[in-house]
Specification:
16 helices, 1% strand, disordered N terminus, transmembrane, membrane
């Protein structure tokens, strides 16, 4: 190239039929979520997330000694509050910026603010219901896209689409996406953290120049997961350690160094979520947000629900195949199965959370892998029919129960 300047090569993005079909499924999922949101009424909990989220962005110290009027959020992660408040804060800034473009005598907000306090300005904002719920729907759709990408790379198109189809038509996933909560963000962060750790371990077997981007991504994933739920980050850290030690053969001496640096970076990210306010941040360590125990109540409620019947049938078939067919027992299927088995019985004792929900993306990944293996056997036609019946039935059930979710 002239002048000796090297041209930069960007990765080529190909959008083929698989990508378009995955996009259609995700659009259907988003459509389900917004259909539910359109029929919801704003609840006191919605207002709490909106108010305290805006306080984090606009005025982080409304009460002496407390981070927000919601308290110091010692166990209830700050991630969901910031996500809920961000669109409303942006709308407020847009309103102020637009007002400053008017002549002084025509300005609505002559004082340069929206009627004083963050809470009292709430009536100035529009479409609050949709702005409040939109980020959580998008994070859930993002997780679905990540689930499809992981399952497709591991198991091919059939495994990827089966996993994504179950995800998009799972009532529990839809329910988690249409209300402000930290569970959907912890689910998103934990799934990304585990598979990013696997990516780092694989990169460690290659040249070192490929390590840094993935280690940086691991750090961000750990930090955001901790900002959602401390227990999710703790489980993710242990899972990352075990998986990296298993996969990074010949480079295991670097695993603890990488995780230590990632943890330090994650602590910095978590500190930033508390606006670098040390008193509030200290409650992460003293508030009991990392306490947990074990119970099968969550798993029982999921697997005994009629709305999840096709998923339960698929899980039963997959369990039989995994135990009885050797070709199904390999790392790609075993890793998500173990993660699901670990997460389903976890319960937190100090905050309101549903850790069994975090297990669902791993469960769907496992189901996609086992059914993809079954579709490569001589019984392909039988399993293809079963796969289609499971997806169609689950979709019909999900669409049927949407009005109940909207209540």
């Amino acid at each position: 190239m002239a002048g000796g300047v090297r041209s930069m090569k960007f990765p080529e993005i190909k959008i083929g039929r698989p990508q378009r079909l995955a996009a259609v499924l995700l659009l259907i999922f988003i459509g389900q979520c917004f259909w539910v949101v359109s029929r919801q009424q704003l609840s006191p909990e919605d207002y709490r997330f909106a108010r305290c989220g805006r306080e984090m962005w606009e005025r982080p110290s409304p009460l002496a000694g407390y981070f927000t009027t919601c308290g110091n959020l010692n166990g209830d992660g700050t991630f969901a509050y910031r996500v809920a408040g961000f669109p409303l804060t942006v709308q407020r800034l847009v309103l102020l910026a637009g007002d400053k473009l008017r002549r002084p005598e025509n300005r609505v907000y002559a004082s340069g603010s929206l009627n004083g306090s963050t809470w009292e300005a709430r009536h100035e904002l529009t479409n609050v219901k949709y702005l409040l719920h939109l980020p959580f729907v998008l994070f859930a759709a993002w997780l679905g896209a990540g689930l499809w990408w992981v399952a497709r790379r591991l198991f091919g198109n059939e495994g990827g689409f089966f996993a994504l189809g179950l995800y998009c038509f799972c009532p529990a996933i839809v329910r988690s996406a249409v209300t402000p909560n930290n569970d959907v963000l912890a689910m998103w962060g934990l799934y990304g953290l585990v598979y990013t750790a696997m990516g780092v371990a694989h990169a460690m077997l290659g040249p070192r120049r490929k390590w840094r981007p993935r280690i940086a991504l691991l750090t961000v994933a750990l930090g955001l997961t901790a900002a959602a739920h401390l227990v999710a980050a703790m489980i993710g850290f242990v899972a990352a350690l075990v998986l990296m030690l298993y996969l990074a053969e010949g480079r295991r001496s670097y695993v603890m160094q990488i995780l230590i640096f990632s943890t330090l970076g994650a602590m910095g990210i978590l500190f930033a979520f508390y606006a670098f306010r040390l008193p509030a941040f200290s409650y992460v360590f003293t508030g009991g947000g990392g306490r947990f125990w074990f119970s099968l109540d969550g798993a029982k409620s999921f697997f005994t629900s009629v709305a999840n019947g096709p998923i339960v049938v698929a899980a039963g078939v997959a369990a039989v195949l995994y135990l009885g067919v050797r070709r199904c027992r390999y790392f790609g299927n075993t890793a998500p199965l173990v993660m699901a088995a670990v997460l389903f019985p976890v319960v937190v004792t100090q905050v309101v959370a549903q850790p069994w929900l975090w297990a669902l993306p791993f469960l769907f990944t496992f189901l996609g892998g086992v059914f993809a293996d079954a579709l490569e056997t001589k019984y392909r036609k039988m399993f293809l029919a079963l796969t289609g019946m499971v997806l169609v039935t689950q979709a019909l059930i999900c669409l049927t129960v949407l009005p109940g979710i909207a209540r």
